[in-house]
UniProtKB/TrEMBL annotation:
<feature type="compositionally biased region" description="Low complexity">
    <location>
        <begin position="263"/>
        <end position="278"/>
    </location>
</feature>
<protein>
    <submittedName>
        <fullName>Uncharacterized protein</fullName>
    </submittedName>
</protein>
<feature type="compositionally biased region" description="Gly residues">
    <location>
        <begin position="17"/>
        <end position="26"/>
    </location>
</feature>
<feature type="region of interest" description="Disordered">
    <location>
        <begin position="238"/>
        <end position="296"/>
    </location>
</feature>
<feature type="compositionally biased region" description="Polar residues">
    <location>
        <begin position="242"/>
        <end position="257"/>
    </location>
</feature>
<feature type="region of interest" description="Disordered">
    <location>
        <begin position="1"/>
        <end position="28"/>
    </location>
</feature>
């Protein structure tokens, strides 16, 4: 065994669960004063073998006479596998060695001056705190930059009509993500027509054009055709009635007015045969060809 290993070897009786030399044990002593940690030695003394530790003493100070159990008694569970911490993990061997050798090496570097050792420890804690703060601040700034970049490059969604579109700020392009059916397509589907058929397309046109759609126009043509047929039939009936009426004699033709005999002159009259009439005074007059004159 080398001399350095003898000096730095930590007896198992002083490594306890509390961490550090005598940590967690009742009666643990504070940090040793000058001359108690590493006494001044010369190079020729270093080459000599280290004296064996006295019975009942640790490496730097006396160990307690008795160690009281700080936890429950060990339970024998042979079937349970115990997971041991890693060398540098919390509770590992490396951490225990660092907790023991750290103050010792600092005290040695400070010339066994505990005050200066505490100052060095405080400076180291401050530097470590500053490093932790700088690292946390850099992480926060990086997270903020990442969040700002994520929001700037986040894809945006918007609705155009019945469709949903996606806009990519990185490429500056838009793409359709949801092709919703239009109102005309919903109407055609509600009518029970299959897509990509003539009836389906006609139903869409009917919904858009309403009264001017193909179905409405076809119905108007059918109605107009029926009306025109009725007009032609009515006109034919009227024509037949006209022909029948024209060939049938009227009542006047069937019942002519009786013709009275021509009035003749009285005896001694002229007997000219002119038309005669009764005047306003009851006198009889006749037409001489230009005017009515009294009958002599």
């Amino acid at each position: 065994m080398s001399d350095w290993r003898r000096v730095t070897e930590i007896p198992q009786d002083v490594i306890t669960p509390g961490g550090g030399i005598g940590g967690g044990l009742p009666g643990a002593q504070p940090m040793p004063q000058r001359g108690m940690m590493f006494p001044s030695v010369s190079p020729d003394v270093i080459d000599q073998p280290a004296p064996a530790p006295q019975a009942g003493r640790g490496m730097f100070f006396s160990a307690p006479s008795s160690i009281a159990p700080s936890g429950p008694a060990n339970i024998d569970m042979p079937n349970v596998r115990r997971i041991k911490p890693g060398f540098f993990q919390k509770g590992g061997t490396g951490q225990k060695i660092a907790e023991i050798l750290g103050p010792a090496l600092l005290g040695f570097a400070a010339g066994d001056n505990p005050v200066y050792g505490q100052i060095l420890l405080e400076r180291m804690r401050q530097k470590r705190a500053e490093a932790d703060y700088s690292r946390e601040r850099a992480d926060r700034l990086a997270d903020r930059d990442d969040e700002r970049n994520w929001k700037a490059n986040e894809k945006r969604y918007f609705q155009s009509g019945e469709d949903y579109w996606q806009f990519d700020p990185i490429t500056g392009t838009s793409s359709r993500v949801a092709d919703a059916p239009s109102a005309g397509e919903e109407y055609a589907s509600a009518m029970g027509f299959d897509p990509d058929t003539d009836d389906y397309r006609d139903a869409i046109r009917d919904y858009i054009l309403r009264g001017s759609g193909p179905t409405a126009t076809g119905n108007d043509l059918l109605i107009e055709e029926a009306r025109q047929g009725n007009r032609e039939a009515l006109e034919a009936l009227r024509q037949r009635n006209r022909l029948q009426t024209r060939g049938t004699p009227t009542w006047r033709q069937q019942n002519p007015e009786p013709r009275s005999p021509r009035a003749t002159r009285n005896a001694g009259g002229s007997g000219s045969g002119r038309r005669t009439a009764t005047g306003p005074g009851g006198k009889k007059v006749e037409w001489d060809g230009s005017r009515w004159v009294p009958v002599n």
